[in-house]
Amino acid sequence: MGQSEWRNAFKEKNGREPSLDEFKQAKKNGFALPKTDLPNEADLKAWIRGFESINHRRPTVEEVKQQKNLAENPVDETATNQEQTPGNQPSQPVQPVQVTQPAEPIQQEAEQFDRRRQQKPAQPDDAGQEGGNNHRNGKKKSSKKRKWVIFLLAVAAVLIALVSYGYNYYSYANSLDRAATALKTYDKDKYQNITEWSDSHKKMTTADLTPLANYMQDQKMSKSDTEDWIKKSGKGVRFVRDGQTLLIFPHYTLEMDPVDLTVNTNQSGLSISVNGKVLTDKSDSDYSEMLKHQAPGLYNFTAQGNLNGQNVNTQSSDYYGDNSSDTVDLNIKTVSFTVESNIDGGDVYVAGNKAGTISNGKADIKNVAVTKGAKVYVKSGSGSDAITTSSKSLSSIDDGDTVDLDSDSILSNSDAEDQLNDMASALTSYASSDDTPSGLGDIFNGGSSNKSYQDFSQMIHRNRYAASRNANTINFGDISVDQVSAKSKKNADVTFEIKEDFNYTSDTDPDKHTSGTKTQRFQLIAHMVYNSSKGKWLVDSIDPNQKKLSDDDNVN
């Protein structure tokens, strides 16, 4: 074969120009083509694409190597065809490819693909069946995913609701409401759930909480007043946030400041007790005992015994907790004094014992043996209708003193005077016009149907039209309140003075033609009641037991 023919044959077979070494080798061989060449890279790639098209997958490394061997060592096609059977015949005949040198990049690509293929499940030959399975599996996976999403959303909604409820339940306002509700039960076991010592933050015992329960029961505050009380500072009780509940919610509690109480007495042979607990059965003249770390609240100290032949049974009750330490003075003294009060008929209590009754605005208390810290007050009635004055300590009262103990919760002198002046104006209006005046319902209990008003109107009509000498006009006024005596929170007696002017003209005296004014002054008692719907005191009746104070006749 000549040089040109060899070159053309090489290009046709290999698709390229021969290299210099290939040309030299061919020249040595007399430009004879070898029977076999290694498959070139283009042929091997073409073979791989054909394999993928027929088998729907990439060939393995072993299959690539096998193809290379076939290209390098071709076999007899006749013999090969005779050995093949329908069962193992490939879907397409594999054509040997001759190349001049090994196609190393193609082999590496096949090896990398084979590794990737081993990491993933091989696709089955039955593409239709696998596709159906994938579709069903996809539906199952999608359904499971949706269920998980719904479940997680439901859990999140529940958690959000619980957290929202928790912040509302453990809020300051709701915690304060629960604390006030618990305090109003006066139950020391319930108090334990809402209190702790401020210094140690430890829970308190029911014995510790007795003074607080005593105070709440004694005061009988409303729920709103209880909330206001525990929010105030200075009483040794504070409503504060002291940590967390369930790690995220605020926790509030009543912190109680401890107080040290020192109890003293100057008398021997007395039994000293506090809130029913005996401190000593027999005191000496300089007895002193300190009660350490006590809770704020109401303490009732008692001293009982015999002093100079007189039986002594005195009490000293007070709220302790404003200060970190305090002194309880149970020194005994004998004292006489006078109590004046607007609670007529009310009982006077000295050191917790009834010592007298208010009569005509006062009561004389004689030779009572009391402690210096004891208190005196006046009380009338019982239950919700009871009236109790504020207390005064006997430490500021000397022998022969007068103590004023008026109640601020009853009708005052000024309010009583205003109401009685309104009554006098209404009576004067009727006397001048004979017409029932307006606004009687705000003066008399029952308005114009009130018996006392009817008594006044009849007296006016008689003196103007049916007397031996008829008055031209009648005036009422110049009210002066002498005393207001409370019978209960809604009942009071007002002792007052009123002037009545009867004016005469000469027309009613045909013989002498005299004229002038006759003036009388009376002391009356008005029984008054408090009308809740009107929010004011009304005259319920005028006591028939009246007293004429003066009678001036200036008619001439």
From TrEMBL:
<protein>
    <submittedName>
        <fullName>Contains N-terminal Zn ribbon domain (YvbJ)</fullName>
    </submittedName>
</protein>
<feature type="compositionally biased region" description="Basic and acidic residues">
    <location>
        <begin position="8"/>
        <end position="21"/>
    </location>
</feature>
<feature type="transmembrane region" description="Helical">
    <location>
        <begin position="148"/>
        <end position="167"/>
    </location>
</feature>
<keyword id="KW-0472">Membrane</keyword>
<feature type="region of interest" description="Disordered">
    <location>
        <begin position="1"/>
        <end position="21"/>
    </location>
</feature>
<keyword id="KW-1133">Transmembrane helix</keyword>
<keyword id="KW-0812">Transmembrane</keyword>
<feature type="region of interest" description="Disordered">
    <location>
        <begin position="54"/>
        <end position="141"/>
    </location>
</feature>
<feature type="compositionally biased region" description="Low complexity">
    <location>
        <begin position="86"/>
        <end position="110"/>
    </location>
</feature>
